[in-house]
Amino acid sequence: MKIAVVLCALAVIPLAGCGTQPSPPPAAAAAVPAGEPLPPSEETAKARLERSPRHGEYVDVKLPSGGAPIRTWIVYPERKDKAGVVLVIHEVYGLSDWIRGVADQLAREGFIAVAPDIISGLGPGGGGTESVPSRDDVVKVVRSLTPADANARLDAVRAWAVNLPASNGKSATIGFCWGGARSFAYVAAQPALDAAVVYYGTSPEAADLAKVGAPVLGHYGGDDARVNATIAPAEAEMKRLSKSYEPHVYEGAGHGFLRAQTEREGANLRATEQSWPRTVAFLRERLE
Q: What is the DSSP string of 7-56?
């Protein structure tokens, strides 16, 4: 599939394949419930969390190798049957209220949403994101993680989550910015994953793409050349390998559009409105 470019002038009807492929069926968008069908923006995340009816809590997940546990925010859906698990991989800014708000929205859609603080134990006094004095300092700590360390921490949280009594045993990742790149890389490292969603994260190298064993859905801002330069090579290699990678680029949107929904004169909000229903439909298809 070609990269899907969503034109602002045609925001109501997303175009796939640069205008050469049919748009997704209406059912994909209709799958999102009415009321608050989108994740919160950064500005509204805390208020949304405070009024959420869903059960969310912090849990400490032990690492098999020992050391500080991974402080993890988990939100359960309100449903009678078992649900799939979605690991929410935070931005380079760590485990924020906004990431917790995205997890809550995923639980509203029917998934067990699990958002680990990947830098747990690495902050001052052995703390995590909450212990680091500034956003810039959080960025430094996050960037100090090696891919192997990040994967080991995700492995521990995924193994714990899929064995919860409420889990159906299926799992996927969704990541943003740094977490988007980790989401794509992790699906190459963890063969038990059923799907991965990438929001404006860079793509892995060709050698890692050969290890991808589950479908990947990608969402990218049109004005994000650094990240978008990695889409076409990954798309070509995934196609050569007969693997599923479906990238969508949203015209006029910037990096971080799902968090910064009020910016870029409506383009970020349009990208959010079009990408989120695709994400929910994709996850439901592979985790139900």
A: -GGGTTS--BGGGTBPPPPHHHHHTSPSSS-SPPPTTTHHHHHHH--S-E
- pLDDT tens across 150-202, in order? 999 999 999 999 999 999 999 999 999 999 999 999 999 999 999 999 999 99
H or E element: which one contains 199? strand 195-199
Identify the CATH number of the domain in which residue 152 sits: 3.40.50.1820
**pTM to 2 decimals?**
0.88
Q: Which of 123, 114, 124 is nearest to 145 (CA)?
A: 123
Looking from the CA of 82 toward its CB, the CA atoms found within 13 Å total 14
**Nearest alpha carbon to residue 94 among 61, 127, 135, 63:** 135
Into how many domains does the chain fold?
A: 1
Give 83-111 pLDDT, tens digit per residue.
999 999 999 999 999 999 999 999 999 99
CA atoms of 143 and 277, how far apart (whole Å): 31
**Which tokens belong to 208?**
């890692």
Domain that includes residue 235, residue range:
4-287
